[in-house]
Amino acid sequence: MNGDQNAATWMAVERAKPIGAQCPSGRVAFRASRNALSATPIHRVTARVLPVSSTGAVLLLQERDPARPGELYWSSIGGAVDSGESLPEAAVRELWEETGIVVGADLLTAPVHRGVQAYSWDGVDNVADSTYFVVPLDDHVEVNFDHLEPEEVGNVLAAGWWTPAALAGVAFRPPDLPEIMSTALTAYADRPR
Q1: In the chain, which end has fewer C-beta atoms inside a 10 angstrom radius, N or C?
Q2: Domain that residue 155 falls in
């Protein structure tokens, strides 16, 4: 995150309003009101998945924050863990929701990274406690955005295969994404076959 993003005003989720859609897990999507100030960000436990190809590339998503639609960045696939859901279950669900790719949790590696990162999305400040998994994937797999949650539609823009070095000069999140990707590539190479 750059300094402007870190200086964002803390916003609370006040009078959360359902926006009507449910994902396959039954969770209802909510949009937060932006009119209440709070000193406490929302804490989110997230599961993230890094699909790695045999060519040494990682599948990432190009996204934007609706509060800053002109600022595009690349990020890993993943999101919040639902109540009663394990981290691996959340990772494969998020992979399906954000890319249309279906894999079993048994294909995931053990967690390769865990990090805590503050960020703002749609005017709401969050702290994500993220666990990252690797899944081997053919780099010719078809990606679609047919299962995005309503708040992601129009904000998840593209998918692409990246190496850590190729991210130099482009915007990405979190700030240590190239290092996490390098760890993922090592886990991919060391996985049992």
Answers
A1: C
A2: 41-190
